Fold this protein.
Amino acid sequence: MKTKFLTLIAALSVAVLLSSCGKVPQAEIDAANAAIEEVKTAGADVYVAEAFTALQDSMLAVNQSVEAQNGKLFKNYSKVTEQLAVVNQLTAEVKTKTEARKEEVKVEVAALQAEVAALVAQNNELVAQAPKGKEGTAALEAIKGDISVVEASIADVANQVAADQLLPALDKAKAAKEKAVALNTELNEVIAKYSKNRKK
């Protein structure tokens, strides 16, 4: 009787073990997919594209493992569970990297905004010092128009940052700085040339 009882317990233990290994961890898979979607929404595919692709590849491997087990008579999803643990770890890392990269871009944009603002102020001062001759007046009006365009671009940058469009904001800020530097160079050259001619 005792032997039969022990045999029954052993059989039940094996059945429980097989059933726990033989069931798709669907809740965990759904949670992993939701977490991946969350980091994508946060911009992982844009800010840390390589890391996000690696994460997607890891999840693809999970799905392939599930498919492989689905085709077997005795299913064992323990490998899937291990792979999901790796996916969860990668997701957390990708989230941290995305947030860090976004902060880096914000700092870079803020620095460019400050540089462009200083250049615009300097360019406005140079416009006041520039020669106002017949030809000079038309050229100065064109430069003033260009300065206004730079100012409008920097205002757009602030709006893009507020809307969390950080990479487009960075591109626009870089372009604005490039334009502001070109105007600064042009104005300094004009003033230097005018000063040189006056000394003659």
